[in-house]
Automatic annotation (TrEMBL), chain A:
The chain crosses the membrane at residues 6-24, 36-52, 58-77, 97-117, 137-155, 176-197, 217-247, 259-279, 299-321. This is DUF979 domain-containing protein. The keyword Transmembrane applies. It comes from Actinoallomurus oryzae. Keywords: Membrane, Transmembrane, Transmembrane helix. It comes from the Bacteria. The lineage of its organism: Bacteria, Bacillati, Actinomycetota, Actinomycetes, Streptosporangiales. InterPro entries: DUF979.
UniProtKB/TrEMBL annotation, chain B:
Keywords: Membrane, Transmembrane, Transmembrane helix. The chain crosses the membrane at residues 51-69, 165-186, 192-213. InterPro entries: DUF969. This is DUF969 domain-containing protein.
């Protein structure tokens, strides 16, 4: 069986290689601090396998993560001056290869589709070929490998390290934002462990108007969105808002159709996800990937969609579920 | 109520534009202490949280190949391709892309990581190329930022409001799993997924309209920046190169 952990190790190996190249990069004024950051990240990726399997203590990993935060906080993370492709390089490459340049890029979605839809259903010898519920992630990993091989054979870069160096260029541009989503997932779990959710649920219950269907629908949907903005994902908000309002008020008291109430309630939460920097993987990482000056640019583009869409969800729930 | 101080810290930190990585770490530690967790429990939470959320960082695997083909002119080729498709403006391209992303997410391809695998190498260069065809290659930064922001948003909105139509996605499984065990209902996952369709249509109409209007918005920004539309001849030269 192909396991997703193999690809986490590959990812860890890339971070470790980036660490080595960074320490050797004399154009980076902060090469030791940066090397330490990427090195810690790579080691943490590999060590995590043992934490997930409960064969190694998690607090060691916790220390490593906080050490990474300290490196960022004290300004030790920097980037080298590896130049991006110049216009001349780009034009001569485009002249030579033309539309063939799209082949490696398009390989990625094609391979992912093959894995997610085709290979996911294959069970040689009664065991699934791909680890369950990680089919797309495995597909993404395999796609990356296939694409880099195609790209290398087609383009024949001068150095065998070229893919790694180019990957490092992009990764340095993203910087700490690459790990922010994982930090936020952690924060979400700490919020839950410390009882933040129960507190917010209690507050929401207090603003609920008595015996008003539209009032209940509005508090449930807006609450899902606001709570999602705080927690960074709708998954944390759903159990709490549903326990406070969704089930007791909308389903039990007003006899709403549970499937419709919960499906639309979850989507009301997604409207919150569009607006929050806490959902870093959807909102901050893309800004970093596109090397935007304003890291909140995507959020600003999404808020004017999120607000009318939340209103739509409220109307849809009121009309369709009751 | 004290535990909510952690939330306040996050809000303040983001509002003051402090480094989010540091803000989140500090808020996590503070929240842990206010919730009476021991130092070991807090460190364990950081460790377990990191280990169990590695999937969101797996997009890093595609960076080497994307960096490589960018070096050999991928983005330039994106511009040239779009230059030949003269009907395809920035806004129209993104309207089409959001449709593709939404439908493919509804078929179970939500977790492909659009920003790294699709937007950076393919969609953004074409969206920018279309704007450059219209306004010239010296696009002012605010216009580039706008194109980047809307390229990212087309991907995110498409994914969010497509994925819930797919039965085996995390959020649907969370709904049925939580509700069935807590309230002893028997919800059919397919039924829940079908109720996501009306919102999906609204999302496409609302965001699609805004993407479509992006062309007008860019036109206004260009006018304000003193850029005039390019002559047909310049455009033909660019396309015919």
């Amino acid at each position: 069986m192909i396991k997703v952990e193999w690809f986490y190790w590959l990812c860890g190996a890339i971070f470790l290689a980036v660490a080595v190249l960074t320490v050797a990069d004399r154009t980076n004024a902060k090469r030791y601090g940066s090397g330490a950051f990427w090195g810690l990240l790579g080691a943490a990726f590999i060590y995590s396998t043992f934490v997930v399997h409960k064969t190694a203590p998690a607090w060691v990993l916790g220390l490593a993560v906080i050490a990474m935060a300290l490196l960022v906080a004290t300004g030790r993370l920097g980037r080298g001056t590896t130049p991006g492709p110049t216009r001349a390089e780009q034009e001569s490459g485009a002249d030579r290869f033309g539309n063939r340049l799209f082949v490696p890029a398009l390989t990625i979605p094609v391979v992912v589709i093959i894995f997610a839809i085709g290979l996911a259903k294959i069970h040689p010898g009664g065991e699934p070929l791909l680890e369950k519920s990680s089919e797309t992630l495995i597909g993404l990993g395999v796609a990356a490998i296939v694409a880099v091989i195609i790209g290398f054979v087609m383009l024949r870069p001068k150095s065998p390290l070229a893919p790694l160096n180019e990957g490092r260029r992009l990764l340095e541009a993203i910087g700490w934002a690459a790990v922010l989503p994982q930090m936020l997932a952690t924060l979400g779990q700490l919020f839950v462990a410390a009882g933040v959710g129960t507190q917010v649920g209690r507050i929401t219950k207090n603003v609920l108007p008595d015996n008003s269907l539209i009032g209940g629908v509005i508090v449930y949907c807006v609450g899902m969105a606001l709570f999602t903005i705080i927690m960074g994902n709708a998954f944390g908000a759903f159990p709490l808002m549903t326990a406070a309002i969704g089930y007791p008020v909308l389903v039990q008291h007003f006899h709403g159709n549970p499937a419709a109430v919960f499906a639309i309630g979850m989507l009301a939460g997604f409207c919150g996800t569009l607006c929050t920097p806490m959902a870093a993987n959807f909102n901050i990482v893309p800004a970093a990937l596109l090397e935007m000056k304003d890291k909140y640019g995507p959020i600003k583009a999404q808020i004017p969609t999120a607000i009318p869409l939340l209103a739509c969800n409220i109307i849809l729930m009121y009309v369709l579920a009751f | 109520m004290l535990v909510l101080i952690g939330v306040l810290l996050v809000v303040l930190g983001f509002a003051l534009r402090l480094n989010p990585f540091v803000v989140v770490t500090v808020a996590g530690i503070v929240t842990g202490f206010l919730g009476h967790l021991s130092v070991t429990a807090i460190l364990n939470a950081f460790g377990n949280g990191f280990a169990s959320s590695r999937s969101v960082t797996l997009f890093v695997l595609v960076l080497p190949v994307i960096g490589l083909i960018e070096r050999f002119g991928l983005q330039e080729q994106g511009r040239r391709l779009i230059a030949r498709l003269s009907g395809l403006t920035t806004g129209r391209l993104l309207v089409i892309y959001q449709f593709i992303r939404q439908v493919s997410s509804a078929l179970g391809l939500a977790s492909i990581n659009g920003p790294a695998a699709l937007v950076r190498p393919l969609i953004y260069p074409m969206a920018e190329g279309a704007a450059e065809r219209r306004f010239g290659r010296a696009l002012p930064d605010p216009m580039r930022e706008k194109v980047k922001a809307f390229s990212a948003s087309a991907d995110t909105v498409g994914q969010f409001f497509g994925e819930d139509i797919f039965v085996a996605i995390g959020s649907i499984l969370l709904i049925t799993g939580f509700v069935d065990t807590t309230y002893h209902l028997k919800l059919d996952a397919l039924n829940v997924a079908l109720w996501a369709i009306p919102t999906a249509i609204c999302a496409y109409v609302i965001h699609g309209t805004r993407l479509y209007l992006l062309d007008h918005r860019l036109g206004r920004m260009a006018e304000a920046a003193g850029l005039t539309g390019r002559t047909d001849r310049a455009e033909a030269q660019e396309a015919g190169r």
